[in-house]
Design brief:
Elements: E1 2-3, E2 10-11, H1 46-76, H2 83-101, H3 106-126, H4 134-158, H5 163-188, H6 196-228
Antiparallel strand pairs: 1-2
């Protein structure tokens, strides 16, 4: 039976108010209504966020490029120095566009950025009317950098993105890439001796060796110790 919470009189089960004091009948078995919550903001898909960022970036970059072009035309009556920032802006836009389109396919981003970088450098070399340093210097440097990026991608893909292995691959690619670039530059500058790349390589080797040791030996011991202490 139900009772009035104010006067204590017994009332019928279906009564909504007390027949004596007209107070509303409260039943303990009734579910208490939950307080109203703030409306949940729907999650924005990552692809849509990347697209919005790309639109804002494209509009901003286009405004800057048009400003450079207009300033060059007003000052020189033609496109002279503005060709360089305009070309750089175009390559930068292509870089960001590749990341937006192929966000889940890094190998396509690496390949596209290598082609875009090579195209940018060949245009810069051709702006003076002849092709001088692109083939013997710039193209091999792009190949070295691209090879290092592909190496890091392969290590990450084959190892399941193991942090220690990926970091070791980055350090190894930086050290080997520095040696390769220094070798190319010294060969292009009439056989100048290599110098700075060995410093970079020496700085990369110790942490790379520690990361490899950590991944293949130390990490398993740490995981076993944590398991035994549970």
């Amino acid at each position: 039976m139900a009772y009035c919470s104010r006067c204590g009189v017994e009332v019928e089960e279906r009564a909504e108010t007390c027949p004596l004091c007209n107070a509303p009948i409260q039943r303990l078995d009734e579910a208490t209504p939950e307080p109203a919550r703030y409306p949940e903001v729907p999650a924005v898909p990552g692809r849509q966020v990347r697209y919005l960022v790309w639109v804002v970036f494209t509009a901003s970059l286009a405004s800057v490029a048009l400003a450079f072009a207009a300033l060059d035309v007003v000052m020189n009556r033609s496109f002279t120095w503005s060709r360089y920032p305009l070309t750089g802006a175009g390559v930068l836009w292509l870089f960001v566009t590749l990341v937006v389109i192929f966000a889940r396919r890094p190998i396509f981003v690496i390949a596209g950025q290598a082609v875009a970088t090579a195209g940018f450098l060949v245009l810069i070399d051709l702006f003076d009317g002849r092709l001088d340093w692109f083939v013997p210097l710039a193209l091999p440097v792009v190949a070295v950098v691209t090879g290092g990026c592909v190496l890091v991608w392969l290590v990450g893909r084959l190892s399941g993105r193991a942090p220690a292995l990926v970091a070791a691959a980055v350090l190894g690619a930086c050290g080997a890439g520095a040696v390769g670039i220094d070798l190319l530059v010294s060969g292009h500058l009439d056989g100048t001796r290599m110098s700075w790349s060995f410093i970079v390589l020496g700085a990369c080797v110790p942490p790379m060796a520690f990361l490899l040791y950590f991944h293949f030996r130390l990490r398993k011991r740490i995981e076993l110790a944590a398991l035994l202490h549970r």
